[in-house]
Amino acid sequence: MQAVSKMTEQEWIDVGTLNDIPQLGARVVKTTEGNIAVFRTAEDEIFAVRDKCPHKGGPLSQGIVHGKRVACPLHDWKIHLDSGEAVAPDEGCAATYPVRIEGNNILLSLLPNEGCPNK
Amino acid sequence: MKEQLVLIGNGMAGVRTLEEILKLAPDKYEITVFGEEPYGNYNRIMLSPVLASEKTIDEIMLNDEQWYVDNGITLHKGKKVVDIDRAKRIVKAEDGTEAPYDRLIIATGSSPFIIPVPGADLEGVISFRDIHDVDAMLATADQYKHAVVIGGGLLGLEAANGLMKQGMQVTVVHLMDTLMERQLDKAAAGLLKRSLEERGMTFLMEHQTEAIIGDNRVHSVRFKDAPEIEADLVVMAVGIRPNIELAKKVGLHCERGIVVNDTMQTFDPRVYSIGECVQHRGDTYGLVAPLFEQAKVCANHLAEIGIARYQGSVTSTKLKVTGIDLFSAGDFTGDENTEELVFQDASRGVYRKLIVQDDRIKGTVMYGDTIDGAWYFDLMRDETDISDMRQNLLFGQAHLGDSGHGEENRVVTMSDTAEICGCNGVCKGEIVQAITDKKLFTLEDVRAHTKASSSCGSCTGLVEALLAHTVGGNYSTAPHLKPMCGCTEHPHDEVRATIQEQELKSIRAVMDFMEWKSPDGCPKCRPALNYYLLCAWPGEYQDDNQSRFINERAHANIQKDGSYSVVPRMWGGETTPTELKAIAEIAEKYEVPTLHVTGGQRIDMLGVKKEDLPSMWGDLSKAGFVSGHAYGKAIRTVKTCVGSDWCRFGTQNSTQMGIDLEKMTWGAWTPHKYKMAVSGCPRNCAEATIKDFGVVAVDSGWELHVGGNGGVKVRATDFLCHVSTTEEVKEYSAAFLQLYREDAHYLERTAPWIERVGLSYVKERIVDDENGRKLLAQRFLYSQKFSQIDPWSERASGVDKHEFIPLKQVS
Ligand code: SRM
Ligand SMILES: Cc1cc2nc3c(=O)[nH]c(=O)nc-3n(C[C@H](O)[C@H](O)[C@H](O)COP(=O)(O)OP(=O)(O)OC[C@H]3O[C@@H](n4cnc5c(N)ncnc54)[C@H](O)[C@@H]3O)c2cc1C
Ligand code: SF4
Ligand code: FES
After folding, report:
1. What does the pLDDT look like over B512-552, one tens digit per residue?
2. Residue B368: which of B413, B321, B325 has the closest Cα?
3. Angstrom distance (rounded) from CA A45 to CA B765
4. Which domain holds residue A47?
């Protein structure tokens, strides 16, 4: 019943400020269940994606961010930051997490969004 | 509201344009298509293999009817457009169907030319253009025996071959004395004729058809001054005419074809035209590669991006008869101003001819072994100076330098399980299947879908050969000058030149000025731009860390498990007990799982956690080490041998020379990695002749070698020159390095760069032009003032701290 109790605790964690992440860059939030990469685009949009490429687990946080995508540093798959889906023709999905900005602070929820089977 | 876009002609060029538009501006238009043929869109080129029973109609459909539905396109199939009201902007079909347009594309292709002889309208006389014709041929072959093909060109021979495969006796009638005279010279045409005859084809050369005889159905063909022959089927394949009937009728300016400008617009700017029906700068085209280039430009204009221009195409030809390899491009006859290079091996049936003028390839004809066709074609279009490869040019690309591919290059005979792309482990069968199943046409498509040739690129030639062989025709054509990446139309050299001329000093400035198509570039162009700017404006340009690949951003090599490796410099490969002790202690302190002596004569500490890097670097700095840049498109190592200090053969102090060179050059960023080596005598223990810059000591001084590398495709260096003093070695080395830095494309190592620009060019700049050499060396040394700052000690003292520590730790 772990899952049920988790569902109820939609809890926002303050992980830092916008300025902590370079534009077109990412930083990692370490959790007991692995890393979450928090990305910042040129337009200062923020996305949170599991730091694990659907291909062979490469750390997406280390990739080059362009538009709303990141290129995995290991074999150059491109991943959509908003959905976590690999850009076609590659197929795969990395879980995404709810994240928002309040004032200058970045708030992250550790409860992954629905939609990606590969948690 | 969406604008109305109407396409007349549901063929290869028209639908390709729609595909491009859907990519660029999917929501801009409400699209309607009229096609005279009663199908979706199919690959006309593949009609020949269908006729030869090597493919089925289903296999050659490019876009079935569902595709139109899925993309919200209204398809009026089987409806011929007979009128266009250009004032009211309405298209009208034969059956009365009408469609209004805001923009219109005419892509009506061409019609086969029918020689106006008596009997040309008899039953059993057909052309070879569409599915209907192929069906007619297949049906005839079932019942009848004798086929006559009029026209010994590309189409005629493919038709004849197919009919023969269907069991008919085929006679090819040709007006000229050689086959395919527009693509082949006499020698190649002779070889072709011989092999077709061996397969059972009969030829009547220099025969002029006078009449086709029959009552209802054809039964014979009569010639001028020659005996009549029996025929149950006559295929006319004597040429095509741009289909301009409709355009002419509605008052659009036409000459041989519908006249268009560089954005594919007709004289009525709302009306575009593309494909075989078009005349652009006086030329018409009958192959798909140029039509696809036109389609791209047209779509770009319709999407109102408006940066692409069509400037005409150079085309090449192949014949799709299985087992016959033939390639032709450009001017293959030559004149008094050109030279001919010819290779002929009659017993193997191999023939190659190159027409050369002013050290540039003007044209080529190849028969029997065409594997290098795409390469010659590239050299021709890029107008590459071939003087340096002239000796080996005719033997093909595999014989250039020391590359070790040679016989492997025969994709056609390779088994399906043969590995083509070693990097991504993709074999021939997979590639062929992707090309056929997914209807891939370009190298980029194959890269995207199979990953083949998307990494080191050394198998690009093989993939192109496979592509050409699988889809037939000529698909290997990249535009004349390749754009840097999908974000721009501009090629590398143009970008570099513009950065200088316009004094652009940031990535943003370049993207804005040169009208980049994407908001902030991609992983291909950003690192390149960052490098170009850094090289152009040393000391001024503010390096953009986010445009660097992770290894360069974090100053260490990322490993497969996400950990990093650390390689400190060991100048010239020499070290001391103190250094070794320091490395040992640091390795223990950070629990480094593996130490490895690298191929570059130093020690790699592998498996370091990212968070540990700065403090580990701090410890290394204290022990006197600086970064080895093993991670960068930068100066890597300078390998040396022990030289005259110890070796009984050593002629000069090669170790010291290596150390001096490394101290002079370390820290410099380069288009690709750059390695040097110095050997103490011609025994060459430091392997200087497979390095980007190699120095070999001889009694009288030093020999300088350039443009080598190991790797997938080994290339031994070219000899640059001999110099006497240490100072000269340094000056030449700095000048050569700077020339490469200023001249090469990003990710182009010295070897391919030299093959592209030519050794003579490098010699002119470095050896012959003393003043130029000194200026190059000066520019290099100037830029070094800003780059010889050890990135590791900087980071140990806190630079880019955010790069190495997590944003937050949540328990
Ligand atoms: C560590 C090392 C292997 C070793 O343990 O000996 C090595 C490791 C890698 N080499 Fe290498 N190469 C190493 C010496 C070489 C050598 C030998 C030499 O330098 O004399 C060669 C052949 C010489 C040459 O470069 O021409 C070599 C030819 C390559 C190539 C092919 C280059 C080419 O132009 O074809 C690649 C692929 C590439 O760069 O695209 C490559 C790529 C790599 C990469 C960067 C692959 C990657 O992207 O991860 C490896 C990084 C491992 C890491 O994280 O440290 N490595 N590599 C060597 C480091 C040398 C050093 O001290 O800096
Ligand atoms: C057998 C064969 C083999 C070939 N092999 C090769 C090869 O190996 N390599 C190569 O590069 N090229 C090859 N080609 C040439 C290539 O197929 C053509 O260059 C290409 O198809 C031209 O494209 P298009 O769109 O201009 O014309 P098409 O593909 O002919 O399309 C024009 C379409 O418009 C329709 N149409 C015409 N008028 C009207 C109207 N008034 N209303 C409605 N619809 C209309 C026609 O029915 C047709 O479907 C080959 C051609 C043939 C026939
Ligand atoms: S170190 Fe070099 S040769 Fe070894 S696996 Fe990596 S890239 Fe290949
Ligand atoms: S692990 Fe990301 S592309 Fe391979």
Report:
1. 999 999 999 999 999 999 999 999 999 999 999 999 999 99
2. B325
3. 49
4. 12-109
Instruction: Out of B519, B558, B807, name the one closest to residue A16 (CB).
Output: B807
How much is the CA Rg of chain B, to the nearest whole Å?
A: 31
- CB of B454 within 8 Å of a chain A CB? The answer is yes
Q: Name the one residue in this structure whose structure tokens are 């021939």.
A: B428
A103 Rama sector, left if φ>0, alpha if ψ -120 to 50, beta otherwise: left
Could you tell me if B559 lies within 8 Å of chain A, comparing CB atoms? no
In a domain, A117, yes or no: no
Q: Residue A35 falls within a domain, yes or no? A: yes
Checking B767-776 for CB contacts under 8 A at 24+ apart, the result is: B767/B720, B767/B721, B772/B735, B773/B731, B773/B732, B773/B735, B774/B731, B774/B735, B776/B734, B776/B735, B776/B736, B776/B738, B776/B739, B776/B742
Closest-lying ligand to the alpha carbon of B555?
1
Q: Phi/psi at A57 (nearest 5 deg)?
A: 80, 15
| Each residue's pLDDT tens digit, B363-411 | 999 998 887 887 888 888 888 888 888 888 888 776 554 333 333 345 6
Buried (b) or exposed (e) across B259-296, using 16+ Cβ within 10 A?
bbeebbbbebeebbbbbbbbbbeeebbbbbbbbbbbbb
A60 in contact with ligand 4, CB cutoff 6 A: no
Q: Is the separation of the CB atoms in B130 and B45 below 8 Å?
A: no
What domain count does chain A have?
1
Distance between CA atoms of residues B217 and B135, nearest Å = 17
Structure tokens at B355: 């027409």
- The CA angle B648-B651-B655, to the nearest 5 degrees, is 90
The reply to whether A7 falls in a domain is no
| Contact in structure between B532 and B507 (CB atoms under 8 Å) | no
Q: Is B109 in the pocket of ligand 2 (CB under 6 A)?
A: yes
Q: Measure in Å the smallest separation between the Cα of A27 and chain B Cα atoms.
A: 6
Residue B436 tokens, joined: 């056929």
- Domain CATH for A42: 2.102.10.10
Task: Verify whether the Cβ–Cβ distance A66 to B809 is below 8 Å.
Answer: no
A91 lies in a domain? yes
How many angstroms separate the CA atoms of B628 and B666, rounded?
8
The two tokens of residue B721 are 């020159």
Cβ atoms of B208 and B217 within 8 Å: the answer is: no
> What pLDDT, in 10s, does the model give residues B179-212?
999 899 999 999 999 999 999 999 999 999 999 9
* Ligand 1 residue neighbourhood (C-beta within 6 Å): B 456, 557, 559, 565, 567, 596, 598-600, 602, 604, 628, 630, 636-637, 639, 673, 675, 709-712, 749
